[in-house]
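Can't paste images in this forum, so I'm doing it all in text. The chain is below; anyone willing to post the predicted structure tokens underneath?
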Amino acid sequence: MLTLLVLVAPWRPRTRRHLSRLAQSIHLKSKSGPRVVVHAVSLGEVNAAAQLVRELCQLGVDVVCSSTTVSGRQRSQALHPSVEQVEWPLDISHCCNRWLDQVQPDVLVLVELEVWPTLVSLAKNRGIPVIVVNGRISDRSMRKSARIPALLRDGYVNLTKVFAQSEADLDRFIRMGVARERLSVCPNLKWDRPSVEPAAVEAMRLDLRLDADRPLVLFASSAPEEHKLFAESAPSQCQVVVAPRRPEWFDDASRSFAPSRLRTDVQGLGDTVVLNTLGELDLVFGLADVVVMGRSFGHRHGSDPMGPAAAGKPVLIGPMHSDFLPAVSALQEAGALKVVKDSELKDRLANLLNNPQGRMQMGEAGMQVAHSAQGVASRLAAKVAAYTQPPRRDRGGAEEKEESVHRDAIYSSASGGEDGQD
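Text version of the structure:
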């Protein structure tokens, strides 16, 4: 792996960044309590873990956040300005050992699926629990993993605990080598997000220069292959906000929705705003009359519909949404979301905008689904905090096992059961 990095580093900026992590030196403040590192790969995972990080801090845990991508780290810093941030190490023994020596975690928390076999194995050898929260393995990831099972197996079999998003995800973790007794199903953390203040939503309306008396359609987390379809589907009488998922897609959205104006262009004119900022989407959900979730009408695998549903907004999503199948199914069953084809999108949008009662019913159904999962971050934080005192390695195996089982029983009972209320 090291040889490959050296060979390609001059040609890829991302690889040059990874290469610089070989000799990274981490300087953190002295521990103020048990230290939990919460690792979220990129922007979506950082947002998912936001409430969990806050709950851990409330419990007096010394939280350190980690992210792999630049946008993820920037978002994490914005969400948690008082929490220290670190780079995640390359999965090479030297880098992982150095990182563990410098960071000194008591528990490692991996959000969704970031199971690095070397680090997980070394953490286990040191008696550091490694916990996966919001655990998810898609069919696509499962097929890729099947190609290199021996390489990944050490990562999965050495996990201390996995809180999976669904029974299907739980079954996939078992197939990857995680023992059944180490697995529980827990609602998606993305349901558990703090409510947005109405004043902040109205401030966003003023910033975007939107007319409160005209309907607004939000195309959220869009991708380039969808922009033409979205532009053609937007009713002419509506205002539009399009929020591309990645910064490199902002220009494509501007061209496809021309004439349009950037959110950061205070002099721009037009009824379409390209949200060329990150971290503001929850505020715009509060302004929309209908939300269309992107990355679901092309060749990708969907975007998170939980944000707009929790905000009480009717949601339309395309047929390609496999990465969010449990949430889509729950919302569709409740009547809060409709799955539509490309050819149907324009008519479905027009019909919804002409049906205020239908929009209200869909929005209320979405809020009810979201409300049923509230508190999951608090319950998970308590369980994670329980692992900050791992079984002692200087005692006999039987005592260690007994202590571990007793600890799990205590925290299962306190939270209503591992497979119950969670």
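The longest strand covers residues 216-222. The CA atoms of residues 241 and 273 lie 5 Å apart.
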